[in-house]
């Protein structure tokens, strides 16, 4: 069930790729930043009211969050290890000089799709997929990327297209 759902999502994102590129250009040029927030936030609420992230967990299996120093300290404390040990065991520095996971899927993701460090998870995980944050205009590139990762973001954008009568 889960695999079929994610395979279907991947196919949909491929089919809509060019259309979405054009749509995001349209949003950037034609929709005022505050208006974009007022449009996307209710759609975020609507979609996530009927979305169970535990059925998917694609974000945890395909992408890794950035870890801030605060995240590292908080998680290490929770795991009762030194921050340096946590970093050495689980993280690497990427090309942007950010701390990211050494491997995917996330080592803290259980077979049941529950996160073993959920209460202290990184800020990037708490805020994902970012469609409820203010200043959506500044996050359009990220949202466009997240369409491929998160079926809920795909739904939000499809609903936004319908609302704006974008064809």
Structural description of this entry:
The protein is mainly alpha-helical and 167 residues long. It folds into two domains: 2-57 and 130-163, no CATH class; 66-127, no CATH class. It is built from nine helices and two strands; from the N terminus they run ααααααββααα. The protein has helices spanning 2-15, 17-30, 33-49, 58-62, 69-79, 83-90, 123-127, 140-149, 151-163; strands spanning 91-93, 99-101. The chain has a two-stranded antiparallel sheet with strand order 1-2. A hairpin with a 5-residue loop joins β1 and β2 (99-101). The model has no long low-confidence stretch (mean pLDDT 95).
From the helix content, strand content and strand pairing, which structural class follows?
A: mainly alpha
Give the biggest beta sheet. 2 strands, antiparallel
Whole-number total of structural domains: 2
Q: Mind telling me the C-alpha Rg?
A: 17 Å
| Element pattern in H and E | HHHHHHEEHHH
Q: Estimate the global geometry from the Cα principal axes.
A: globular
The stretches of 5 or more residues where confidence is low (pLDDT under 50) are none
Measure the end-to-end span. Answer: 31 Å
Helix content percent band: 55-70%
Count of DSSP H/I helices: 9
Q: What's the number of extended β-strand segments?
A: 2
Q: What is the mean pLDDT?
A: 95
- Binned strand content: under 5%
């Amino acid at each position: 069930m889960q695999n079929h759902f994610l395979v279907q999502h991947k196919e949909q994102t491929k089919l809509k790729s060019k259309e979405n590129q054009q749509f995001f250009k349209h949003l950037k040029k034609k929709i005022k930043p505050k208006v974009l927030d007022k449009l996307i936030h209710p759609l975020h609420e609507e979609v996530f009211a009927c979305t169970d992230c535990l059925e998917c967990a694609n974000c945890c299996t395909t992408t890794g969050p950035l870890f801030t120093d605060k995240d590292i300290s908080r998680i290490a404390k929770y795991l009762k290890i030194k921050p340096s040990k946590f970093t050495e065991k689980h993280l690497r520095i990427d090309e942007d000089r950010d701390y990211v996971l050494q491997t995917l899927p996330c080592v803290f993701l259980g077979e049941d799709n529950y996160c073993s460090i959920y209460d202290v998870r990184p800020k990037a995980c708490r805020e994902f997929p970012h469609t409820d944050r203010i200043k959506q205009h500044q996050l359009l590139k990220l949202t466009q990327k997240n369409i491929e990762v998160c079926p809920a973001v795909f739904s939000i954008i499809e609903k936004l297209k319908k609302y704006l009568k974008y064809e």
